[in-house]
Design a protein that fits this description.
212 residues; TIM Barrel; seven-stranded parallel β-sheet; two-stranded antiparallel sheet; globular
Length: 212
Amino acid sequence: MTREEDVREAARLGASFVGVIMTESPRRVAPGRAGELFGSISGAPVRRVGVFGDEPVAEVILAARVAGVHVVQLHGRAPAPEELSQLHGELGVEVWRVIRIGPAGLTAGQQSAFSDAEGILLDTLLKGALGGTGTAFDWDAVAADVNHRRAGRRLIVAGGLRPDNVRLAIDRLGPDVVDVSSGIESSPGVKDHLRMAAFMTAVRRTTPAPAR
């Protein structure tokens, strides 16, 4: 999110989470600006997500405090165990690890990520981009591995979701959260409120398959 009116509309439509990007991206906002955006829905039952890349953990902690986030989403390198402990200890937030899925599906190295974070976010691997590309990965190719390893952790699915395909993604992977950005935009960072409403309607019409 980059605009107050979009944050408020997401809350009005019943979104459980709203997020801001505080790393390199066309949608990047400064921590202070992120706090202003979140402040526009003060009191609403919506959890606030801060998205980061490869920033040092001290920078992530400072930015997350200024913005006032409930969730830290890590899109960059795999954090060391002591870094995760520091995030939890100093912020008391939920941490989501991002796994970027390429043509090979879920690799052996990525499978270990399921043991060290409260949430696992699956996104599409595209060279030179952390996310927000509007490209989906092969949901069927990873469904069995993901459901075998999720073990009660929050599963978040991103990558190319739109009002016309989110029901299929939910059917294939049964996620706890679906994460959309470019699929409801008129331009980077500018949300289309009609598309937002259509996305929420599609999600509400879907009953996730039970985790296997």
